UniProtKB/TrEMBL annotation:
PROSITE patterns hit by this protein: HTH_LACI_2
SUPFAM superfamilies in UniProt: lambda repressor-like DNA-binding domains (SSF47413), Periplasmic binding protein-like I (SSF53822)
Keywords, comma-separated and alphabetical: DNA-binding, Transcription, Transcription regulation
PANTHER family the record matches: HTH-TYPE TRANSCRIPTIONAL REGULATOR GALS, LACI-RELATED TRANSCRIPTIONAL REPRESSOR
GO MF terms held by the record: DNA-binding transcription factor activity; transcription cis-regulatory region binding
Pfam families: LacI, Peripla_BP_1
SMART domains in the record: HTH_LACI
Domain HTH lacI-type per the UniProt entry, residue ranges: 4-58
Organism (species): Chryseobacterium jejuense
Name of the featured protein: HTH-type transcriptional repressor CytR
Gene name linked to the record: cytR
Length: 334
């Protein structure tokens, strides 16, 4: 069956195609009676709008770019759900890409978004400084960029949704100390992102406060997977460095470490307590369940979407920072 077009509606109603297009877009210059005639005819004939064509006429693509390091864990998908809560009812579509923690892949994804002429980009970056030039370029093209969780260097004036990583990390490490732990390992996140630095600084501050800081207990990784968490702890054990607890940058790193320790017959939390930052569903799907800093991921997505709408409606609207709270959730791993 042939697709019904605006030209078919034009012939059926004896109206110009431009009038029908404006009516379908709820243009204020089309009177209510004409608009109703057009909508009734569209329903009767089974007209399905060509959204791309209509959006070009309105000057918007009604499409938002979503650029994240990964879609494997629930972290990004929960943020995406929040974005959808706000944007789907308004008729927006979302293009999703992942960078795999590679700034070059992220750059290509951003170039793709520019080619698609998206109305805005919501992004969780993979390096604080490496793609600043393309962020600036895209914003100069009139495409707003909203950052969440991981944010670019302070030199860029952007809207963002963040957690106070420094304070929440401090609180979690202090909790571990108050449960009797003194040899607390920190598996750090990627060194090129600001929240990894903030979490490390929060960890350091508390251990220095209690005069138990040991540089040997900071473990660097070259990735964020379960396997990287396992390798981090394997490295400590091979160096015979004693520890009684772990605070990891993410759930995946913490769970990788925990699984390896369990394989070695280490009792958790009796011998080693484990805590993490992120608080995705993964933390409650393992045994023992994982103590974590739980971020309001869906609400972060909703806030990022609202910031995007502000910039779409008015490109000169001042950039804003939304600081969201996170909850320390204590589970069986501590």
């Amino acid at each position: 069956m042939r697709r019904i077009t605006i030209k078919d509606l034009s012939k059926f109603l004896s109206l110009s195609t431009s009038t029908i297009s404006r009516a379908l877009l709820n243009d204020k210059n089309v009177n209510e009676e004409t608009r109703k005639r057009v909508l009734d005819a569209a329903e009767k004939l089974g007209y399905k709008p060509n959204l791309t064509a209509l959006n070009l006429q309105s000057g918007q693509s009604k499409t938002i770019g979503f650029v994240v390091p990964e879609m494997i864990t629930p972290f990004s998908s929960k943020v995406l759900k929040g974005i959808q809560n706000i944007l789907y009812p308004l008729g927006y579509r979302i293009i999703i890409t992942q960078s795999d923690e590679d700034p070059l892949v992220e750059r290509k994804n951003l170039q793709l978004m520019e080619e698609f002429n998206v109305d805005a980009i919501i992004i969780n970056l993979c390096h604080e400084t490496q793609n600043n030039d393309i962020y600036e370029h895209i914003m100069k093209q009139g495409i707003p960029m909203i950052f969440f969780d991981r944010i670019p260097h302070k030199s860029l004036d952007v809207s963002k949704v963040i957690i106070d990583d420094y304070i929440k990390s401090s609180l979690m490490v202090e909790y571990l100390i108050k449960t009797g732990r003194k040899r607390i390992v920190h598996i750090i996140g990627p060194t090129g992102i600001q929240n990894a630095v903030e979490r490390l600084n929060g960890y350091k501050r508390i251990l220095l406060k209690y005069n138990i800081f040991d540089e040997n207990l900071i473990v660097h990784t070259d990735g964020m997977t379960f396997e990287h968490g396992k390798k981090a702890i394997k490295q400590l054990l091979s160096r015979n460095i004693p520890f009684d607890s772990i605070f990891a940058f993410s759930d995946t790193l913490a769970m990788g470490a925990m699984n390896f320790l369990l394989e070695q017959k280490v009792s958790i939390p009796d011998e080693v307590s484990i805590a993490s930052f992120s608080g995705t569903e993964l933390s409650s799907m393992v045994y023992p369940q994982l103590t974590s800093v739980q971020q309001p991921l869906e609400k972060m997505g909703e806030a990022a979407a609202e910031l995007a709408l502000e910039k779409i409606k008015n490109s000169t609207f001042p950039s804003r920072t939304i600081l969201m709270d996170a909850e320390l959730v204590y589970r069986a791993s501590t």
